[in-house]
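Quick one: Succinate dehydrogenase from Cerasicoccus arenae, structure tokens please.
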Amino acid sequence: MTTPRKRSRKVKPIRLGDETIQPGEAKDVRLKISETYTGDEIALPVRVIHSAKPGPKVFISAAIHGDEINGTGIVHDLLYDVPMAIECGTLFLIPVVNVFGFETHERYLPDRRDLNRSFPGNESGSLASRVAAIFMREIVSQCDYGLDLHSAAFQRTNFPNVRADLSNPDTRKLALAFGCSLIVDGRGPEGSLRREACKIGCPTIILEAGEPWKIERGILELGVRGIRNTLIKLGMLSGEPITPAYQIRVKKTTWVRAEVGGILRYHIGAGDWVEAGQPIATNYTILGHAQHTLVSPADGIILSLATLPAVKPGEPIVHIAIPTRSIPGMRKSNQQNQGLAGRVRRDLATNIAKVEIPAETQPD
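--- reply ---
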């Protein structure tokens, strides 16, 4: 387990690339990460807010996958709609990490590598490895904490959830403070930013929320609120954090996959609580005949679901988070309909077609 780096009581200038940011200064920096075919500079846009008072250094990054832009919208709101004025410490705000994918509306880099599997990187390696190494050297190595903002992969949507290694007390502190209703416990995949940042003493968590290629209103509100909650916890902002109506920790998840090819109609939505054996989607033939109903293998919460209704056998349909608390008991309290999480759940549900369960396919 790693711990955050010790901070000096004296506030010194911050160096980022070729720029110097003085205590009490906020500056927009273009951090060079590569070049075009014609030799022009490709740079990472970064806003550095450097308080004159000592405190934690925190990075907030988005669009490490170029098509996941809900996080970009969240950082925009922090910068402009609700301008961030911290009371101590330093913020590195990076609205787009994968500028290559962002330009082409694609998840990956031009070399088809996943940037979020390329950390800590190598400055003499592939394009993805070089970008990762620069980000680690210039941003992560200077920070005490990190928040990385994500959306679902192509043709899926995610019910908002924070993912963190809860065995690390520092990442657990961030995850609980953020105030998301659902926390998924885990270290993260090999080569992911959060896993590698934690290894070098920068406890980092991620937010997974919404769809790619979209900036969704409820996700923006939830993300901005969560970041402010976290900065309040770290002493960088004053005020009272806003707590969620409920908060569930999850260690185990499972996928439900299509058994036959056809067109899906859902009976649930992202964020819904389901019980073992409950029908979640019916697969219809192309001519409209109900042919198979998928059921939940366990009590859980719909973490993610496919937004493309046309499926083949074996394709992932629904990702279910399995909490330790009883879902039937929680359902009786009607917690899922409360607060911002309930509103986001209802908003996400408007993006899919939910239907009644066909009588001929209902399980015995």
